Amino acid sequence: MNYENLYQTLQPEEKSVKDALASLQKLSKSVGRETESGDLKNLVKDINAMADTAAVLSAALERIRSAIGDFDAKAYFESGDFAAQMLEECREKGVDVRGASPVYEMFPYKVRLDMENQDIYLDRKKVQCVRPLSFVETVRSGQEKLNKAPFNAASFAGELSDAYDLAVLKLNRQPESDIYLTSLYKLLAPMSRFRKDYDLQSYAFDLARLYISYISGTDTAKNGRKFQFGPNRESKKSIRILDQNGNEQHLSTIRFYRE
Fold first, then answer.
1. With contact defined as beta carbons under 8 Å apart, do 53 and 24 qualify?
2. 95 in Cβ contact with 143 (< 8 Å)
3. Residue 20 C-alpha from the chain's centroid
4. Pairwise CA distance, residues 134 & 120, whole Å
5. Distances (CA, A) of 46 to 60, 117, 187, 218
6. Signed CA dihedral, 68, 71, 75, 77: sign only
7. Which pLDDT does position 233 carry in this prediction?
8. What pLDDT was estimated at residue 231?
9. Beta strands in 103-175 (DSSP E)
10. Global pTM?
């Protein structure tokens, strides 16, 4: 199954509906004027034209209803066709995607497919969409919006350094040691209700923007301390991000120090 086939079927019918509605609106205005002026001859003619146009509209709507009824959305999701076509659209649109059905990562979003109800969850937001192309465009648009949002690397690094200092004390580590970024997240969002507003994916996205600034030469927090990311390790404690070129990177640790 492919929603695009249904879409192509519906396009001419939707045009018929649009044209019929435009014609009805025009005729309705004429009927109003003719009723007011007492132009019965043209009134009868336009009323008949409205009836014929309404029949055309009704027939087009019935064909649309029939085509939609013939499309089994549940089977479309459960067969894996939707997921396969979604992944193909991601490749064509350059949207990075990882994971396997029903859960995917489209950085910085988490995507979950609800096969039973034919719903899609973009993070915690339910998206009712059965067209893979439309959904992927929604994701890409959201990514572009996030990337354009203002970001103060020095300020975020300053907040991160405060969490770093707490982690050094809590973990009984030496100052300027490498600390796992996952440990800092637990200090930045210590309670579950905080993590709902600032989840791990949001943290990863901020780290990605900080990393991009770091690569560009910004390595100083607002409080004047320098920071340095540790070696990338693809471990359970690493955090996956995308760099400025859309390439996958894994960040594990960070350290703050003074020169």
1. yes
2. yes
3. 35
4. 12
5. 21, 46, 73, 72
6. negative
7. 64
8. 74
9. 103-106, 109-114, 119-122, 125-127
10. 0.85
The pLDDT tens digits of the residues spanning 110-119 come to 999 999 999 9
Among 156, 176, 158, CA closest to 255: 176
Q: What share of the chain is helix, strand, coil (3-state, %, to 5)?
A: 60, 15, 25
Q: Which of 248, 251, 245 is nearest to 232 (CA)?
A: 251
Give the pairing of strands 226-229 and 98-100: unpaired
Peptide bond into 102 cis (omega under 30): yes
The DSSP string of 48-89 is HHHHHHHHHHHHHHHHHHHHHHH--HHHHHHTTHHHHHHHHH
Rounded Cα–Cα distance for residues 249 and 182 (Å): 15
Q: What is the mean pLDDT of the chain?
A: 94
- Residue 234's pLDDT band, with cuts at 50, 70 and 90, is low
Per-residue tokens: 209: 């923007």
Residue type, 240: R
Closest CA to 205 of 166, 254, 236, 251: 251
